[in-house]
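Example record used in the benchmark description.
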Amino acid sequence: MGSFFQTYYPAEQWKHRHTLYSRLYIVMPAIAVTMAFLLASSYGTIDSYNWWYMTLLPGMVSIVCCMASRADKKLHNRAVVALPVDLRRVWDAKVIFCIRSAILGNIILSLLTAVAAIVSEHVAGVTMLADITLVQGAAAVVVMSIGCIWQIPLCLWANERFGLYSTLLANLALNLYGTIVASLGSCWLINPYSVTARLMCPLIQVLPNGLIAENGSLTYSPELMDMKAVPIGMLVCLAWLAILWAAARRWYGKRGGETI
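Model output (structure tokens):
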């Protein structure tokens, strides 16, 4: 493991240095928070999270994954397979690079939201009608991270097979369907794209449509507020991550003979 973080992972980071997509984990959360507090005002706190995990986070993950594999793919991976390296560990480096971006993006979103809420209340005099505590924010970071990183090996593989635009459009469409439609159904665990939106209902008391989770809100139902769903959903996402990572790692490791 030590050699991996001394050779493979630094090499992967070096490929993407000074690129815009390697800084999306800063840019995209800043956009989400700015839009939420400018447009939603008193509901800026919950809307920052809601707009983030519903649209901007899946978009960031999709873009980072596609662009992370583009550097090698442009040369048909010849620059990689020609070297005396383990392709499976090269794949691991790509996955971890993308996971890092997703986790940092979630952390920055949470921190920026907390700062923006304080500034809005104490400087602009805006009262937050719905607030998120530090504990809720920390739990949300964990849920959003685990709820999205399982997509990373899938997006990396899809980009290798089908290309940038097909992967982006397909993954965004699946995310929208999962978060808007499937997350409200009784079979939400079957579709891992629905897990994050479903678990954020009891966690931060907000529905997928951005409304406060309370009686009278559109699409609200008591079943959505079951906290027992949180550990179950997390285990499902971790299982998908392990399965997809192992399968894609095996596939990529066999590509040497095909590429050369």
